Amino acid sequence: MTPARRLSVRTILMIALPLAGWSLEPSPAAAADRAPDMAGLMHMDDSAPVGKVMIDQLEWADESGRTLADWDGEAWYGSDYDKAWIKSEGSPDPSDKTVSRNELLWDHLIARWWSLQTGIRYDLGDGPARGWATAGVEGLAPYGFNVEAALYLGEEGRTAARLRAEHDVLITQRLIVQPEIEADGYGKTDSPRQVGSGFSDLQMALRLRYEFRRELAPYVGIAWRREFGPTAQFARRNGTDPSAVLWVAGFHVWF
After folding, report:
1. Is the distance from CB of 59 to CB of 249 less than 8 angstroms?
2. In sequence order, what DSSP letters do the residues of 93-119 get, joined into one string?
3. Distance from the CA of 58 to the CA of which of 10, 24, 172, 203 falls in 20 to 30 A?
4. H runs (alpha helix) in 160-246
């Protein structure tokens, strides 16, 4: 005969207690009470306000022997769902004719990777200042493209549209290539600002940056700019080539 197996106390309890309606395992509620609050431990609170300032491009460009300076930056403050957003890009001019596009926006999350942005835009330089009401979207498209698309409504029935897309391609963890494309269009000609109706201009650029730190990265690159239609005609009348290739160098900074 084979020797009888010895039953442990736990085995006996596991057989007997369920028959009495009891259990050795903790209830789901008790387990939840004892589980650590991972969001709390990791300080994850998507409703907590945070902020960021980023100068995406602070650069100098060479165009036909002339050195031009440009900036393109933004700052925001708020939660994951709602933010106040400031965007600005332009080119300073020693003669006080600085050209810039400035926007004050409210940003509201509408999908996992997309936000609705509404607010105002104010353009300076190249003629009289212009104000616009704006609405658009910004987010992450498939394959990692950061996309901005906006429509604008100004005084006297003026309308405009803008599309911008860029993508970071990692060669290494620090060396990054960034292709970028931007296009603008206007609903009607604005002669004082030398802007024609229709598809106005297209800019494409390729920048190579090296991130010594995530917050600081110098870069070099090449950019191509082309104006079309009536806008190109305005440029020719002013003695400016509507198409230009520029070598650029600058810094990408955020904090």
Report:
1. yes
2. -TTS--EEEEEEEEEEE-SSSEEEEEE
3. 172
4. 229-237
Q: What is the pTM of this model?
A: 0.79
Contact 194, 235 (CB under 8 A): yes
Question: Is residue 225 within 8 Å of 201, Cβ to Cβ?
Answer: yes
pLDDT digits (tens, 9 = 90+) for 147-190: 999 999 999 999 999 999 999 999 999 999 999 999 999 999 99
Instruction: Judge whether 233 and 34 are in contact, CB under 8 Å.
Output: no
Q: Residue 78 corresponds to which amino acid?
A: G
For residue 138, give Cα distances in angstroms to 74, 194, 211. 13, 28, 25
User: How far apart, in whole angstroms, are the C-alpha atoms of residue 41 and residue 153?
Assistant: 47
Nearest to 114 by CA among 84, 136, 135, 89: 136
